[in-house]
User: Which sequence fits this backbone?
């Protein structure tokens, strides 16, 4: 089967062709402008490839509830041109094929659960720390939606006692994303994270925030594994610091076989940054 | 059908008889001593009533995973006599009937979802704030377990800027439970919550903590409704303060029809403190 996969981001649209085995056969990237200019380009690509199904992992917030009137829409995004645009309907009509739809982070969680490191587990989460922070949640074999979908990048967490930065979230100030996403690092320290690799204090603080979020997600979702991805995690020293701080903060409260080996509990994304696009393939298969 | 329900608590065991309609026909309460003394009393009660099924909502942590070797056990509880006691096996053998089993807070969430205010919803949570803090999670028609079960009373949240109390959780100090459960209120202010009804500062701080947890659970679980129960919520002024602080902290970030009416989103338990025992009846029916 020829499967189309679209990782729809705020700055670029990654369009790919793949198959049931999770092989990616072709991929293009298109800048995200307006629906009027960007949609026809994407449709032309997928039409030309004769896709039989399409899966979309989309920047949010979105309406993923199939029973809702606005199912398929990108809703209250700050990207005005895309507000209330029904991307599922548009592709469904243009390509005359089934379309699967979820958030980009749920797609990444699904990609890891289908083809990656959380394969075979009932409950896992995927956290991306990059320009923003998002969490994809895979529970009992399906992606969590609830009222809408998780926005777990915006949980409130404790401040590091040496952190004087006010926080960067336009809604919540010093929520998790406001304290720990890439732009927060840059604003706090005056340089981009990539240029701060040697500054231990930077990563000690960052690890404290990510570890604290992992503790909260461990307490709330009780996942069997936590997968970490996104640009900030490219800093290799960060993962061991997160694991160590996580164990310190958990203080032995939960005793399970999964937590007995922390290096196998908090793990890096396993699919070479293809976790979301592979999740889109699975979304297409499920559509 | 004659259904047995057991709300197993650390200080008392509430044993009840009910039916499929959620009617409670008889109820006794037995002090929680050791399995050797308390189990025979409970078994005698249920045997005498000729129960055909039993549902147990139990103090934790427990092993609710049916595929695990220790399924049915109370695990690392500080109540030494009950550590690793397999309560499901003990009742199953003594009563020769199917036994349902979950945490006390999951039972309460299930009670509300089956007979109470969250009936008909796919995704709801139940938070109890009393001697401890627990969260029951009902998602897509079933109770959340994952690796174990939620322990969402122990999430990390921000401290109130005027709060100098160190926190009361033996594991985490100032986690949600350590800051906001009944014993934390008593230690911080030197008197029990029930004696502090007129002290506005007490409840402003308490509302800040509970609202902040509600924000985090709204972001993580995306529930269609949040139900609040437990002894601390008996303070009538608290609920409106929680709602108001919740809206302030959310800052309009999530726009859904459910959140449009906060008085219908964060609601008090609806089953006259019978939510857990009624959930046990449903656990028995599902067994």
Assistant:
């Amino acid at each position: 089967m020829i499967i189309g996969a679209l990782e729809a981001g705020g700055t670029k649209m990654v369009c790919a062709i793949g198959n049931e085995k999770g092989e990616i056969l072709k991929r293009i990237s298109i800048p995200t402008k307006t629906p009027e200019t960007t949609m026809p380009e994407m449709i032309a690509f997928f039409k030309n490839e004769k896709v039989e199904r399409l899966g979309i992992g989309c920047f949010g917030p979105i309406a993923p509830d199939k029973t809702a009137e606005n199912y398929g829409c990108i809703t209250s995004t700050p990207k005005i041109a895309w507000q209330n645009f029904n991307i599922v309907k548009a592709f469904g009509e243009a390509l005359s094929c089934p379309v699967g739809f979820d958030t980009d982070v749920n797609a990444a969680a699904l990609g890891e659960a289908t083809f990656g490191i959380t394969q075979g587990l009932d409950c896992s989460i995927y956290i991306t720390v990059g320009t923003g922070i998002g969490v994809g949640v895979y529970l009992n074999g399906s992606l969590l939606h609830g009222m809408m979908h998780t926005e777990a990048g915006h949980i409130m967490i404790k401040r590091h006692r040496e952190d004087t930065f006010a926080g960067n979230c336009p809604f919540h100030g010093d929520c998790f994303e406001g304290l720990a996403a890439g732009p927060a690092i840059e604003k706090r320290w005056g340089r981009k994270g990539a240029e701060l690799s040697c500054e231990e204090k930077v990563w000690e603080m960052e690890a404290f925030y990510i570890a604290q979020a992992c503790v909260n997600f461990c307490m709330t979702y009780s996942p069997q594994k936590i997968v970490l991805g996104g640009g900030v995690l490219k800093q290799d020293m960060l993962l061991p610091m997160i694991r160590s701080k996580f164990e310190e903060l958990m203080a032995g409260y939960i005793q399970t076989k999964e937590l007995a080996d922390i290096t196998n509990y908090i793990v890096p994304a396993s699919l070479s940054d293809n976790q979301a696009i592979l999740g889109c393939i699975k979304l297409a298969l499920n559509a």
